[in-house]
Amino acid sequence: MNTSAGSTARLLGAGLRALLVLTALCGVLYPLAVTGVAQAVLPGKANGSQVTVDGEVVGSRLIGQRYDLPAKEGQETPEPDLTRFQPRPSNGLGTNSVNTQYALILSGATNRAGDDEELIRRVTDAKAAVVADNSVPGHPVDPADVPPDAVTSSGSGLDPDISPAYAALQVRRVAERNGLPVQEVAELVRDHTEGRILGFVGEPRVNVLALNTALRELVDEDAAP
Fold first, then answer.
1. CA-closest candidate to residue 129, choices 80, 172, 164, 76
2. Are strands 50-53 and 56-60 parallel, antiparallel or unpaired?
3. Tell me: the pLDDT tens digits for 117-170?
4. What tens digit of pLDDT does each residue of 207-218 get?
5. Pick from 27-41, 44-58, 146-160, 180-194: least confident
6. Dihedral Cα 22, 24, 29, 34, nearest 10 deg
7. For the chain, which end, N or C, has fewer CB atoms within 10 Å of the first or last residue's CB respectively?
8. Helix/strand/coil (H, E, C) string of the chain?
9. What φ, ψ does residue 137 adopt, rounded to 5°?
10. Terminus-to-terminus CA distance in the chain, angstroms?
11. CA 142, 213, 54: angle at the middle one, nearest 5?
């Protein structure tokens, strides 16, 4: 009986020591080491790839955001700020209805089939809006030139990038609204167009936040005396 009790006590003691050692190793030392290396080697990415303007964080290169005008009284959906480049639609996003103590945005896709009537209506309306918003005097937008990413949301609804084609489609409108030469804005888009990763992964893309940040700087420079 005493031998059995002693064996049980030794097993419990070994288990407790293993628990304490593994907790310290995996729960404290390892996270601290990984965090330290990340902060030393890639501090920008480790902190969420934040973009700052005049010392203020304006967003992350990894998360898409909308550029809208302040909503008017009684207006459910605010109008887009046409002085800025616009991102992809975000129809898949939802709101937190479980714990309303927190104002959360739920990431996700619409999960609608290609022949879904609601999806077809959304795409049709989005294409009409893109054509109307980006047509400028003397340069109407051909509906056939509207790229897919201008009228469809991504799988997460938070895609921070748009295609070079969609960025180019917005150049004349952005230039006109900001009183800038079209060539300068087009060059801005070219400078912010990123190629495929490693030359073959993914598609060429333009980060909307980085582009709008550079656009703001260009507008400020142009307005400076």
1. 80
2. antiparallel
3. 988 999 999 999 999 999 999 999 999 999 999 999 888 888 999 999 999 999
4. 999 999 999 999
5. 44-58
6. 50
7. C
8. CHHHHHHHHHHHHHHHHHHHHHHHHHHHHHHHHHHHHHHHHCHHHHCCCEEEECCEEEEECCCCCCCECCCCCCCCCCCECCCCCCCCCCCCCEECCCCCCCCCEECCCCCCCCCCHHHHHHHHHHHHHHHHHHCECCECCCHHHCCHHHCCCCCCCCCCEECHHHHHHCHHHHHHHHCCCHHHHHHHHHHCEECCECCCECCCEEEHHHHHHHHHHHHHHHHCC
9. -50, 125
10. 94
11. 160
Structure tokens at 92: 């898949």
Cβ-based neighbours of 158, under 8 Å, separated by 6 or more:
63, 64, 90, 93, 107
The token pair that represents 32 in the structure block = 């601290």
Q: b vs e for 100-124, b when ≥16 Cβ sit within 10 Å of the residue's Cβ?
A: eeeeeeeebebeeeeeeeebeebbe
CB atoms within 10 A of CB 77: 7
